[in-house]
Amino acid sequence: METQIHVPVGSPVIRKVPIFVDEHDVTEGAMKLINELRPAWDPSRVKTKLFTDGTTNKLVGCYVEDSPEDVVLVRVYGNKTELIVDRDNELKSFQNGICYEFMQGDALGTQDVRDPSLLRLIAREMARIHAIHAHNGCIPKPNLWIKMRKYFSLVATEFTDQASNIRIQQEVPSKVVLEQEMVWMKEHLSTLGSPVVLCHNDLLCKNIIHNSKEGHVRFIDYEYSSYNYQAFDIGNHFNEFAGMAELDYGLYPSREMQMDWLQVYLQAYKLFTKKTEEVSPRELETLYVQVNKFALASHFFWGFWALIQAKYSSIDFDFLGYAVLRFSQYFKTKPAVMALQIPE
Q1: How far apart are CA 155 and CA 153, in angstroms?
Q2: Which of 72, 54, 53 is nearest to 62 (CA)?
Q3: In Å, how far are 100, 127, 128, 156 from 267, measured between CA atoms?
Q4: Bridge partners (DSSP) listed for residue 199
């Protein structure tokens, strides 16, 4: 598979523990895992913290007060999330979740990503990820259109006359309209010349961890990562400036803020890939146009995702309302975005 990431020879073997964790009682299952992973810990002294920001999975942190820097995170996949996340591609054959080390730092918010110093750190870190080479030197293919089509097929039954969800019938654009827009997007966006690179694909604010002591940011939650269009990953991140629980697209970065971000990104990306930091005005303007056009595809992608979550997820979140807002923003911004032209 072109989207598979090569694991170097000699890399540590990922340990598998035959314990099933119930998503409705994550803490109990997490304690069973701690007995296996940290046998020296006194179970009576283990503290747990349930993280509630996740909208795909459930996450609990386990630690002892004597060593607060050693935190084990247990992530349990949400109900039916195998429909929207390629679990085989993520880490290959885990049962229903994974454990990993806690990363020290602060998860960012919608105001943090606008901070000039953090903005530059994020742009450089994304450039670093995008510069990772394709598996075995093959030319990777973007998974955007395949994934979007799959999502659409999973929710298409909700658009029939017999569908039981009245809100979808009344508030979401029709199946015919959504399919027409998907076809148009693929035809138009595929011709913009955006490079295909290794993408995070889900860089919302809370997936960026800032370590102020070490002066860097790191990204977490790579379950949606794959080879994809460079401009999609950036445009998707810019859409996330609006937040999630209470969407505010007035926070979408201005052209001036985007240009600052993209200048830093391009300098870093070219340094990683071509050993030069020279960025021409034409290159900068081209990326700006590509990013804002691919931001449209981001609205559709997560709109479909939210419709699937509305049907299957047990997480307390208005996924259907979120889907309506994403599709609405797509149609609202499309005319102005499509007026943008890549410089000759």
Answers
A1: 6
A2: 72
A3: 32, 9, 11, 42
A4: 226
**Residues 81 and 315: beta-carbon distance below 8 Å:** no
Cβ-contact 158, 89 below 8 angstroms: no
Alpha-carbon distance of 147 to 56, in angstroms, equals: 16
DSSP state of 112: G
**Cβ distance 287 to 266 under 8 Å?**
yes
DSSP per-residue letters across 261-319: HHHHHHHHHHHHHHS-----HHHHHHHHHHHHHHHHHHHHHHHHHHHHHHHH--SSS-H
Q: Is-contact 59 221, C-beta < 8 A?
A: no
pLDDT in tens, the chain (344 residues): 334 444 444 444 556 777 777 777 788 888 888 888 889 899 889 888 877 555 556 778 888 888 777 888 787 775 554 443 454 544 433 555 566 566 789 999 999 999 999 999 999 999 999 998 755 566 788 999 999 999 999 888 888 776 777 888 899 999 999 999 999 999 999 999 999 999 999 999 999 999 999 999 999 888 888 899 999 999 999 999 999 988 999 999 999 999 999 999 999 999 998 888 899 999 999 999 999 999 999 999 999 999 998 888 878 889 999 999 999 999 999 999 999 999 98
Tokens of 46: 């283990």
Which secondary-structure segment (H or E) carries 218?
strand 216-219
Give every CB contact of residue 303 below 8 A, 6+ residues apart in sequence: 323, 326, 327, 330
Q: What is the DSSP string of 8-22?
A: PTTPPPPP-------
Give Cα separations from 332 to 151, 185, 244, 299, 326 (angstroms): 22, 15, 18, 11, 10
How, if at all, do strands 72-77 and 57-64 pair? antiparallel
